[in-house]
Amino acid sequence: MSSKSLPILPGATLGILGGGQLGRMFTLAARTMGYKVMVLDPDAASPAGQMADVYVQADYTDPAALKKLGDNCAAITTEFENVPAASLIELARHCRVSPGADAVAIAQDRSHEKTWLADNGFATAPFALINSEADLDAALTRIGTPALLKVSRFGYDGKGQTRIGSLDEAHAAFREFDAQPCVLEGFVKLECEVSVVLARDDAGRCELFPIAENRHDNGILDVSIVPARVSDTLAQQAREIARSVAGKLNYVGVMAVEFFITEDGLLINEVAPRPHNSGHYTLDACVTDQFEQQVRVLCGLPLGDARLLSPVVMLNILGDRWNTNGPHWDTLLAHPNIKLHLYGKQTARPGRKMGHCTVLDADLDAALQLAEQMRNAL
Ligand code: AMP
Question: Which of 79, 97, 115 is the last residue of a domain?
Fold first, then answer.
C-alpha cells in the first residue's frame, strides 16, 4: 500500500497477528476509535479473539488465513515477536504492515538482536553466541560466572534461561535446551531496570512515553513505577538510546527498549517490536496510551500526546493469585484510585499474566505502597 492511501480512517478494518492480552488491548483501542478488527491466533479462546469483529483461528503460516487477512484489512500489525517474519512479508504484498518483517526478525531472535545491538554500537551485558557445546568453554572463559544461558528463540518472562555457575552447569543447561542456539550472557549487577516505550511513524517522528522503573519477580515483571526514580541524566540517556535504536531499525510502530542500569551505566537488555507490559500504565495515566498509539502509527495518523497525567504504579496480576478463594476483587475495587484490567483468560496458572491494575496517586510512594498492599491482599 502506498502512503497515498494514508491515513486509514475509522470504519476500515485493521488486522492483528496474535490474540494475547496485547492484542486484546489493541483491539479495544481500535474499536473504541471506530475501526473494525480482525484477529489471527491459533488458540480457540484467545483474549483478543473475544473482542474482535472477526476472529480467524488458524496458524500464523496458514495461507488461507493470511489471504483472508490480506484481502480484508487496510493494515496489519502484530502483538508478539514470534510471528514468522515470512508471514509479515506475505501480508505486506497485500496491505500496509507495521512493524516491518526486518525489525521483527531481529527482535525475535536473541542472537540476532544482541549481534545487531553490538554491531550498531549499543551497550549490552557481555555475551557470546552458543551454537554447539564446543562453543561453551571459550565463551564461559571470556564471560566468567555467574552467567545466564538463554535460548535464542521463544524465551519470555524468564523462561528458557538458566543461571550458570560452572562449565558443567553450562553443558547440562545447553542439553536441557535441546542444543538449540543460545546466548550466554554475563550476569550483571543491577541497580535498577527501566524501559522506554515509544512510537515512531513513517516520517521518523518519535513520541516517547515516560520512562518506567521496573521490578521483576522470578524473571516476570511485577511492578512498573512511573516516573522512574532515576536521575534526569540517566532518563535522558535512556530516551536518546531508545530513539536511536528505533531510528537505526527504521522502525515504524510501537516498540519498547528494556534497560539494565548498572554502576557502569545503561545496558540494553531487550528490544520488543510491540507495545510492552511495562507500558500498560499508559492506559490510565497518559493522554494517549500505547495501544491507541499503535493504532495511530498503523493508520498513518499523527502520533498522540504521550504526556503523563499522574504518577502511577502498575501491578501485574498473575495466575498465582487464583486459589480456592479466588482473587479478592472487592478489596482492590474498594479503592477509588485503582483501575483493574483483566484479560479474559479462562485458565489461571502460576506465572501466567491474567491482568494488571494501576494505582494513580499524586504521591508516587503512596501509589507504590498501595500496589504492594494489593499484591498481598489479592
Ligand atoms: P529477560 O527475559 O532476558 O528480559 O530476563 C528477565 C529478567 O531477568 C530481567 O528483567 C532481569 O531482571 C533478569 N536478567 C536477565 N538477564 C540478566 C543479566 N544478564 N544480568 C542480570 N539479570 C538479568
Answer: 97
